[in-house]
Design a protein that fits this description.
Helices cover 78% and strands 0% of the residues. By secondary structure, the protein is an all-alpha fold.
Length: 173
């Protein structure tokens, strides 16, 4: 569109390039795809003015920062004033809470997992975290780390293999 202002064109480009990864990131952070969609929309609305006036040097970074802050605020509000969907059915909401024993076991397993991840070689650890935490594709990880996609695939497979071995040894003992 020749009559389209360049700010709108920049926003359109940013939107197309970041929508899917941003929603994946926010879904992982919030645990709810509907909320992730709402937060992504709000983040785009906050970033748009800086694209229109060309004040954003790194629009994608600005977008992710805005989205992360909005998500954190939403999580804080959720913890302050949780909306229980089963508030009128106490039997259902009470039965969904894990017991103390289960909570302790989960914390212990999480600690073992964190220790095992910390022991991974740096390249494997970076690839694993980008893949599992930020939910990036192998191509996106390769671009971010400036390495070949085949290297990302090998490091990801190696990280999973090393984690499996480390966790099997620790959980069996």
């Amino acid at each position: 569109m020749p009559d389209e202002p360049s700010g709108d064109r920049d926003f359109s480009t940013l939107y197309r390039a970041t929508l899917a990864p941003l929603r994946r990131y926010l879904t992982r952070l919030l645990g709810n795809s509907s909320e992730a969609q709402d937060v992504a929309h709000d983040a785009y609305m906050r970033v748009y003015p800086s694209l229109a006036d060309k004040s954003a040097r790194r629009p994608a970074a600005l977008l992710y920062t805005a989205a992360r802050r909005l998500a954190i605020n939403r999580l804080k509000r959720r913890s302050i004033s949780p909306v229980a969907r089963d508030a009128f059915i106490p039997e259902m909401s009470a039965s969904q809470e894990p017991g103390v024993e289960q909570q302790v076991m989960v914390r212990q397993e999480l600690t073992l997992l964190e220790e095992a991840i910390a022991q991974l070689p740096e390249g494997c650890r970076n690839v694993l975290l980008l893949c599992k935490i930020e939910q990036l594709s192998h191509r996106e990880i390769a671009d971010r780390l400036s390495i070949a996609v085949s290297t990302v695939e090998k490091q990801h497979a190696r990280a999973l293999r090393l984690l499996r071995a480390a966790l099997q040894g620790r959980l069996e003992s």
